[in-house]
Amino acid sequence: MKRIFSGIKPTGHLTLGNYLGAVRQWVEVDQHRADADPVFCVVDLHALTVEHEPARVRRLSRQAATLLLASGLDPERCTLFVQSHVNEHTRLAYLLECTATDGELRRMIQYREKTAGAAAAGQGVRLSLLTYPVLMAADILAYGAEEVPVGEDQRQHVELTRDLAVRFNQRYGHTFTVPRAVLPRVAARVMDLQDPRSKMGKSHASTAGIVYLLDDPATVEKKVMRAVTDNDGEVRYDREAKPGVSNLLDVLAACTGGEPEALAAGYDSYGALKKDTAAAVVELLRPVRERHAELVGDPARVDAVLASGAGRARELARPVVDRAYRAIGLLPAA
Ligand code: TYM
Questions:
Q1: Is pLDDT above 80 for 56?
Q2: How far is the centre of ligand 1, averaged over its atoms, from the C-alpha of 154 (Å)?
Q3: What phi and psi, each to the nearest 5 degrees, are found at residue 81?
Q4: Active site residue 202
Q5: Please, are residues 285 and 213 in contact by the beta-carbon 8 Å criterion?
Q6: CA–CA distance, 72 with 98 (Å, rounded to integer)
Q7: Per residue in 194-233, pLDDT tens?
Q8: Can you give the pLDDT at residue 333?
Q9: Ligand 1: distance of its center to the CA of 295 in Å?
């Protein structure tokens, strides 16, 4: 059985980027594979790496789990749990901090971008922002995952995870499976509708360019219809020269199963492209919103799924992390 692992961070409401870049693969592909055992996690500890409000993180963690179930994750087909319920993640993270170097963590793009932003605002960043990719590596390696279905922005973190696994194995004997990132064919990087050169992210300052999974149809329509494009009026797929139009084509292709280049040929105006994209996104999200409305009234059901998921996750991770403790030279407890 191939182990699959992926996670989502409760730092904001889930977006269309999260859905197309990651969650949809988990729901539609990963959990249906006969050869795979998928494990999905609401990675709440990662939400503490930036300024946070305790009650909000708690609320968003539950909301993320509810939305993952509403999106179609089936607890009979996968393991779903909350990271902080399973101690093995932080246990292993320390050993990996003793494997990684300060330099390789400082090179991570997300760290550089976030520290630059904080410095410009005259603020510092939490130490955990630097070590965050090591915790992410622990998330993946603790489960012996071979595949990590993620969007494009996580590719570098998965590469680091591979490097750490290989280094640890070489120094201390074979302990970890070396994982690889699996990206969706289209929409691996959905861009902000108002700023199509930036990724659509949960915590962007302005929300006008972000479609949230729980946005109502009128809001989705408004956001897509107001998407920033360009002035030349030609519908053509070219992510460099025409980022706004290409982003809409990517989203439309991801929703309808087409190819962005081929879809472009069917349009001679931005208005028609936006109208069809808005309608496709509304239809894509409709069942998710409906199931979410049902599930939100039954928090005990969500808690039960998370409790049994954490139990299974502990069973999977414990032996791997214990093995790593022995391999690195720590004396086993009597
Ligand atoms: P996070 O919470 O930012 O995003 C969750 C998933 O959604 C993808 N994603 C996108 N895909 C396409 N376009 C976008 N605009 C977009 N925005 C987000 C992300 O690539 C990700 O797959 N560090 C991770 C969480 C994490 C994790 C892990 C993932 C922690 N441990 C272990 C995999 C395995 C993160 O911040 O994702």
A1: yes
A2: 6
A3: -155, 175
A4: yes
A5: yes
A6: 38
A7: 999 999 997 677 899 999 999 999 999 999 999 999 999 9
A8: 86
A9: 23
